[in-house]
Write a structure and sequence with these properties.
By secondary structure, the chain is mainly α. The chain has helices at 24-29, 48-51, 65-76, 93-98, 111-119, 133-153, 160-166, and strands at residues 84-86, 102-105, 124-125. The protein has a 3-stranded parallel sheet.
Length: 175
């Protein structure tokens, strides 16, 4: 970017020293004449509600995770009992309430999530709650075991590999 040559202003037109310009002594030591300095507009300090975006979410009424789940349920013809929610934050609560097949909590990240978990004893909180990926793995393993047992009880094929083979898919071997 070429800004062109900056010409010093005549002495009578020079601005008074400002806090953002070098003092005249420093300019004289550098052998330069004082230049006209335009203040750079500073960015406004963000209000506290924007400083920590994980604490506040703003979105139109028609958006949000609960409405997204409702849309997906309609789109794919799923009943709420066929849907499971894995969640951990306040903005996930509307989504969790739309999924009647199970609510899985890898951690209780806020007082409102903990309160909702107490109000819904059927919600599953991981024994390793708060341990990140270990809590998530625990919940997903339990969900997979439940799906397999329900599938076997209903006469479905017992393993993902058998189910995939029936559909003509090839899956990597399970560990």
């Amino acid at each position: 970017m070429n800004l062109g040559k900056v010409e010093p202003r005549p002495a009578h037109d020079r601005p008074r020293p400002r806090p953002w310009s070098a003092p005249p002594q420093a300019q004289a030591q550098a052998g330069a004449q004082p230049l006209a300095v335009r203040p750079v507009p500073s960015l406004p300090v963000p209000p506290p509600y924007l400083a920590y975006t994980s604490q506040y979410d703003f979105y139109p009424r028609a958006s949000g995770k609960g409405n997204a789940v409702a849309y997906l349920q309609r789109r794919y013809g799923l009943a709420p009992a066929q849907c499971v929610a894995l969640f951990d934050d306040d903005n996930d609560l509307p989504m969790a309430r739309r999924c009647e097949g199970g609510q899985l909590l890898p951690g209780l990240t806020s007082k409102s999530v903990a309160r909702a978990a107490l109000e819904h004893p059927e919600w599953k909180v991981a024994e390793r709650a708060g341990q990140g990926v270990f809590a998530i793995e625990e919940l997903l393993e339990a969900l997979l075991a439940q799906a397999r047992s329900e599938g076997r009880a209903a006469g479905a094929l017992g393993t993902p590999g058998e189910a995939a083979a029936a559909e003509g898919l090839v899956l990597p071997r399970e560990a």
